[in-house]
Amino acid sequence: MALWDGIEEFATVAQTGSFTTAARRLNVSTSHISRRVQALEDRLGTKLLARTTRTVRVTERGAEYLAQIENVISGLQEANQSIAGDVAALSGLIRVSAAGPFAETVAAPRLLDFAQANPRITLEIDFNNRNVDLIADGYDFALRYGVLSSSSLIARKLVNHRLSCVAAPAYLARHGTPQTPQDLRQHSCLVANNDTWLFHDPESGSPLPVKISGRLRTNNIPLMQDAVRRGFGIAYSPIGNLQPLIDAGEATPILEGFEDQSRSHWIVYADRRLMPRHVRAAIDHLLASFANERS
User: Is residue 111 a part of any domain in this protein?
Assistant: First the structure.
């Protein structure tokens, strides 16, 4: 199909910003991608991509062309899926970036359910706390927690999870129990990702940021839990990270009613229009599996 030659390759390079990443996504060589895009440009008589030794960017004419062919590609994918129906088995690799206990113990097992129901699916799940570049690093989607900054990516809420502030009974006996978030400035706090904790003012409904400090800084949950047990200080974390300590009597909740209400677990991905069918199905599976837990 000469009319189609190079279009998928160009669209994938434009989406990923890299010939190498596009080649990996399409499971072909970089030279194959380059030849196909060059042939497409020659056929159209215009430059679609501006290349240097380090970067690739879409030209103005390339952006115009991409905007039109994305609808064509999306329509073709929908037509193929409609005709194939349930006959065509989902297959392919799904690369996921994930972080946190919720992703490890709740979301990842639901992805295993999806893979178990679709034997031709292969999962690669990388657990890390890095702010990865989904497109450049070749991930299909990410599972993240918190308040997300604005970006060109699409974020869909999986479930809300409240925060809890706790300390060991022995720590509170020695240093007293904070009555307001501002009291934390006089306490030793266990710092995770940043040294400003966000609370919620129950009277005004306004956010209440508090600058904190302490003897330990770590984003490792087991180490943070051990530090709470030993009385190193106060922790502020999703309730799932602290509930085992509370249940065992090793930590006491404090500042109840002040917890930040804006935190959620999210699934983050790029534009669905060029997304492979099996990746789209995995995302839909996760969203559907948490439908009753989302508020």
Answer: yes
**Structure confidence by residue, pLDDT tens digits, 108-145:** 999 999 999 999 999 999 998 777 778 777 889 999 87
Neighbours of 205 (CB within 10 A): 8
The Cα 106–Cα 111 span in angstroms is: 9
Closest CA to 187 of 252, 235, 226: 235
* Stretch 19-29: mean pLDDT: 87
Residue 1 lies in a domain: no
| Residue 250 structural domain | 163-254
Which residues contact residue 74 at a Cβ distance below 8 angstroms, ignoring those fewer than 6 apart? Answer: 273, 274
**CA distances to 162, 165, 238, 260 from 294, in Å:** 12, 23, 16, 17
Contact of 240 with 221, CB cutoff 8 Å: no
Considering the domain architecture, whether residues 168 and 250 belong to the same structural domain is answered as yes
